[in-house]
């Protein structure tokens, strides 16, 4: 495939020329992520530069069609781009619910008008999206949602509230599950609406987490008018879109288990030292060895599923474990990170404790196995759908 | 001695429970945190506790204490664990007074212990230097100079460092970091020239801090115990501290666990109470079993201390290891079983998880204690 | 308590005089146990001597009343006897279902005539009893038993079969749960019968276990006539006796976790050796440390529950964990025993492998968490009765 | 290389599955055991397997093999694990042929490998001496005497010792037990004077045995590899053996697991299928996840061997450790979930548990491999 080799060479040289040096450093935490939006915040001017250069090539969303602001790459080209970015340690130029969640759903379920309206703005980082799924008291039982959308002349009148809305206090638009019919089973009568967060009647209240940060909000809708053309997919049949997106979300969250640039055991050796060639803490050594082994085995499993899919075998049953296993693995990793870093990990703020980097990351990880479908729900799904129990 | 509380101990426990639930519940800790309180605990409350005799609970009657032993102190700490009550009981009574009582001269005891028992003097220990608890790795140098020693170096995780009146500093007077021999204990006034203290805001919103010594001069008269013989004293004190911290961990684990069981009986999902899900039931039942084991170990190790049995170190290591394991599991499960609400700062469960990890790590966590337990067993 | 001190001194000197040297060695396996019966087998003549001497004093069943062949000791005296036997390492002189299971039930539920008929023979080792509880296909759901006892003139006509009957091929009598009424709930209509295994219509087939041994049998009843006076307790209300005995059984089985005369870690050090003062296998060391810690904590918990009971606090909720925790602990111990003994533990027979002592003990332990109520049933019980879930 | 089987490999796997289910199911192992069969395996079956090329599956074409690589051998072993089929594939192909192919001279290869590939020659390895796998602790002495060496000592757990034609013996020619240097490999005829073999009836009813050497004389020409350089060869062979045994453990674990899931769908208790109990469902689902990880590791490590990657040792250690952990858990859970019937000899599940433990221990079990994995990772 000489074309692909050429593509690789071109990509590499373009990245080397265009990706600023500062954008080749590992991200430290959420504040290094770029989300775009109407009132974007950039910690460093290079973030803006890097986002705009990539958006201009369509490479913020490399596989989307060009007419919607994407790069139009096929899967082989996209893989090469990923590999070259990874080898140069280029940061993701733009992230968020628009790219990872709504975009794919729009491509699958949206009308042509909706695609043309929303996709290019997502690709360029013009609009920041949030997701209105969970409701107070509903928890894992998502389909029991109660936010009501009454059909009026040319709009829906939306009343109710959402919780765990990620980044709602910064978002410009929301994609939202609402109830348009209450008469049938709970999976019927759900609809999928898109609307502007500046619409009258929308209000937002951040939720303070145990990590001391507020990535999520409560969001309230009080007589919000949503034009009918903002309905995505069929009315009352939004549950299929919801399920599609839940699967997407789980695959994203399961990725928490991956991606540390330095091996965990190297950090442990630095912090604890060796004794007779082995980590000086013999009990912790065992736990770290098990963790490293499971990180390796999990990575090999993601690789295998990827390769099986590529070779036309479809997405095997193994993919059903990703959300569950990946998040549990990440929680274990964070507990051990606390143990390894000891006194440093006990700090909550102050420069000597990197603002509580370790403790806050550890606390945040506890939510991984709750958000996007709890571990218990994942195990139920494996038992029922895969094992047939 | 039967492995069961006597009537006096039962009464102490229930009166402590009642007092703390009223005067020092989790909301009090939350307020201290949100106000960024300067002391980090309520001095008025500490006065009340001291009046009830808590500050002298484990101090011999001869030195103004109640002499209820460490079983008594453990009972109070267990109840404080349930409420996450903050006070200098750990720094000054569990550790400070124990240090003086075990290692101090008769003069030290007479001058210091009655004041501690009255709650008017706070004594703390400055021990840890690196990321992890490792007393024999003490490296902070104390260099002899005439009748004095000159101390220079830094200590971390010093409980109540910023409010203590006296600080016992472990320093190296001979040998090298890693040697058990050659460590000496010096009693310093917190206001000594060259000693500076930095309060650190910890994940558990408590009051550990750092102590920096810059050419601090101490007299030989302020040695606690023999020159170079600090390790033997430290070992006894650390055994006491780990058994007592286990009691605190037991209390907080029981509270987190019981709150979770209650939640399972109230919270509905998919149209039924989540407590009816067998997978959660089995996890809850298995944790119940583990907590029963914890109760036995805590009481057995505190009794072993009070009886002066010869297996105190082994029991303390075993108990702390077990409590670290179970407290970690129970607080994690408590958040998981509560779901989203367990992740919010508004809900109290996060405080339990945070305090658990700090109490686990203080004076050696799971890996340290399990290794020590195995070594003490000869393998 | 000067009387008790005197009792201790007397007991000790009597034991020293009367317990043969061979009966002060630890038992190696089941074949060292003495069960008595009509056709008793003694591996060593001292076993017979020791049993008879102890029976003569009533000390095979120290706390039973003297008129039923017991020793008539109060709980303080019984504790002293236990302690002195333990300190001299005296073996139990007689064991079996008669002593541990039926005897206590007879004392609680039996008629005076039944007590006088059966208890002395149990105490003397004249009759070997077995227990007819489980049935094929019933498993954990004991109360669904189907063995039928039809009421006739002066007898019950018993038809059906039992499984997991411990030692039925050697037993002289059986205590047996049968169904006398099928019309109500499954817990109603169960009756408790005692009958002779030589009754016409009783047949027995040993079950070979994965350990290669046959401690259990299938037992078949084909028109077995049982005299009505052999009914124990009320007709149709035998379930309460069954539950009473199940609790007893669970307490017995939970004892598997105790009682090794040598600490496990000492065996490990002999087999594996030390390196820099620690067990030379660092991974196994961790697992053994956890095991030793849990053995210690479990022993302390049994001690605590015992002390609480003695101090009049009644049998606390903690006792509900014994069967579950004790058997799981024993399974862990046996797995580690295999790891520690390596090649020796892989043998199945032959003198070099002590007849497969390690491998067979390990395999047998797997049944601990199944017999007498599975671990799953135990967890259900804790969840429902103790936690109220 | 993608982490997925190619078409040829898929075909090999399914044909092996069909053949073994028909010709060598668990009942065949049961019969061999109950008959106390002298060979411990069916020679007729081994002939059939050899005719299909299995005995030469990993042997280069140049020496009469199929050269399908260790991925090929692993696929067959996985299916043999499912059926618990007995054959000398492990002793003579997985280990014996690998030893000759890696360490042997050109002459060794030409004379020995074609015969192994035809199934007419059985070569095994005599390595372990103590309770545990520890190749560097080889102590059996080989003392130089003219052009010969004199070997005296005992080896245990020698696969197919009693039926092997040739035995490769690891012996110490310099240094001390514990040194990696100084071990040499000697190719002995099984009928050599002074060599005696004892078959041991193992818990898995297979054919390991002991080999005793009493002043056995071997020529220098029968060295496999360099004098004192045996360890480097052994390491490569042991990596192969552990990856392959992991494939066998994978097969038996999958079979035990799938049978258990089927049982959960058929067995009723308390009026409902036991598969409807959520506690069992969650344990089953978690094991499903672990088995998926096992599949990935087995394939990845076998591919690493075939590709000559430089992380083979790390992958083999990781894979064997993971498979030991999961096979132990799955076979234990299989018996527990089957309840009483799982404990009976009449039912097959016990055979899976027994074979699992022997395959786990062979060439190093969980603790050995996890330690090795950590050391290879530098900690």
In short:
The complex is a heterotetramer, with 2 copies of chain A (389 residues) and 2 copies of chain B (379 residues). Chain A is of the alpha+beta class and 389 residues long.
Radius of gyration of chain B: 21 Å
Helix/strand structural class of chain A? alpha+beta
Q: What's the total helix number of chain B?
A: 11
State the helix count of chain A.
Answer: 11
How many β strands of chain A by DSSP?
10
- Helix share of residues of chain A? 40-55%
User: Based on DSSP secondary structure assignment, what is the total number of beta strands of chain B?
Assistant: 10
Protein chains sharing the most extensive interface: C-D, 47 and 45 residues
The level-1 CATH class of the largest domain in chain B: Mainly Alpha
Order of helices and strands of chain A: HHHHHEEEEEEEEHHEEHHHH
Low-confidence residue ranges of chain A? 256-260
- The helicity of chain B comes to 40-55%
Largest sheet of chain B: 4 strands, mixed
Q: Which strand order does the major sheet of chain B show?
A: 1-4-5-8
CATH superfamily of the largest domain in chain B: Butyryl-CoA Dehydrogenase, subunit A, domain 3
Strand content of chain A: 5-15%
Structural class of chain B: alpha+beta
Q: Give the biggest sheet of chain A.
A: 4 strands, mixed
Name the CATH architecture of the largest domain in chain B.
Answer: Up-down Bundle
How far apart, in Å, are the first and last alpha carbons of chain A?
Answer: 46 Å
Entry keywords:
heterotetramer, A: 389 residues, alpha+beta, Butyryl-Coa Dehydrogenase, subunit A, domain 1, Butyryl-CoA Dehydrogenase, subunit A, domain 3, 3 domains, B: 379 residues, Butyryl-CoA Dehydrogenase, subunit A, domain 2, four-stranded mixed β-sheet, 11 helices, 10 strands, 15% strand, globular
